[in-house]
Write a structure and sequence with these properties.
Blueprint (H helix, E strand, L loop, with lengths): L1 H27 L2 E7 L3 H14 L3 E7 L2 H10 L8 E6 H9 L3 E2 L23 E13 H7 L19 E4 L5 H27 L2 E5 L4 H8 L4 E5 H9 L4 E4 L7 E9 L5 H11 L2 H7 L22 H4 L5 H6 L1 H12 L7
Parallel strand pairs: 1-2, 1-3, 6-7, 6-8
Antiparallel strand pairs: 3-10, 4-10, 5-8, 5-9, 5-10
């Protein structure tokens, strides 16, 4: 009997020990959430850390690429969507995903606190804005002086033959920044004059690169004196000490919104909506304000060196639905005219 009792005691103790060990391991299990994003790589770790601190039972798994690549990937996966959430993608792309029936309308907690001008107008919204990013010209004043180039002040100035081979620009099929430029020119001036302008500009373009950041980085390095880019990267390049001036053309700035949307096909709707809730929070907007001069949460944005305090007033009129509906047609026409100067991928 004593031997039998001893054996039983050992079994009970072993089972109890196993339960104790298994408990913490079980508690540490996290639900992976697949998030497709075009957010700048500089920012990803801050969003991941902030969200996972507030939601310790969820782990973000990023799939990150440029806006055009992420948009194409989501459309290619339409029959079998993989992402749970899309974050930091252009509103013009999210409007297209909405039109394709890929997004789940959802109004995140705290939505009423956000500026409604920077989210989908439907209620509940299919996408919710984080920040505005706008076009900017990065101008290397040292290289320009060496080459005898005047400082441009407008988009039309960039069509001056004096700048032949001196300008780089993002490819609109790869880069959201490139597409917001093309869309803005067509909307501001009408299609006839918009394409006429791009024909003239193309004569001065050295190459169309596959990143919205790269033209400003190239200008900062002196590789090319002028890069059509966006204000966030221009601010960062200036902070690095590069001799770059930021120019905000007086005709109006192309712009878009980085936004979040929940995928309709997600098998983790609870976790996906919690991510959307957090991205709409003040905490997330404070992270966003480290880089962006215009954020969705009023009163959070801070002045950024080199960025005009009235940036919002410089933004051109922008119809996101038009940009989404006409995206394929515009990109096909653009490629037919200018693809020959596209940089190798």
């Amino acid at each position: 009997m004593n031997v039998s009792r001893s054996r039983m005691t050992c079994v009970v103790l072993a089972a109890a020990a196993s339960a104790v060990l298994a408990g913490p391991l079980h508690a540490q299990e996290k639900t992976p959430l697949l998030v497709y994003t075009a957010l700048e790589e500089d920012a990803l770790k801050f969003y991941k850390t902030g969200f996972e601190k507030a939601n310790p039972d969820i782990e973000i798994k990023w799939v990150r690429d440029s806006t055009g690549v992420i948009t194409a990937k989501l459309l290619a996966e339409k029959a079998n969507p993989q992402a749970d959430v899309v974050a930091g993608l252009a509103a013009s792309s999210l409007a297209l995903l909405k039109q394709q029936g890929l997004l789940q309308p959802y109004e995140p907690k705290g939505f009423a606190s956000l500026n409604p001008n920077y989210s989908d107008t439907s209620r509940p919204p299919s996408w919710v804005g984080m920040d505005v990013w706008s076009a900017a010209i990065c101008f290397n004043r040292i290289e320009a002086q060496k080459q005898g180039l005047p400082k441009p002040t407008s988009w039309q100035d960039l069509a001056n033959p004096i700048y032949k081979g001196k300008i780089t620009m993002p490819h609109p099929a790869s880069s959201g920044t490139g597409y917001l430029d093309v869309s803005a020119w067509l909307q501001m001036w009408g299609e006839k004059d918009g394409w006429k302008y791009m024909d003239a500009l193309d004569k001065n373009i050295a190459q169309y690169v596959h990143s919205g950041s790269k033209p400003c980085v190239q200008a900062g390095n002196g590789e090319f004196p002028i890069g059509i880019s966006f204000e966030f990267r221009g601010h960062q390049v200036q902070k690095s000490g590069a001799p770059v001036d930021l120019i905000f053309p007086r005709e109006g700035l192309g712009w878009d919104i980085e936004a979040t949307g929940v995928m309709k096909a997600t098998k983790k709707p609870v976790q996906a909506k919690r991510f959307a809730d957090w991205m709409a929070s003040r905490d997330a907007n404070e992270i966003t304000s480290k880089w962006w001069a215009v954020v969705a949460y009023p009163g959070v944005a801070k002045p950024l060196e080199g960025i005009p305090p009235d940036l919002e007033k410089l933004l051109a009129k922008n119809n996101f639905d038009w940009a989404a509906e006409n995206r394929a047609r515009i990109l096909a026409e653009w490629s037919k005219r200018y693809e020959g100067k596209a940089a190798a991928k």
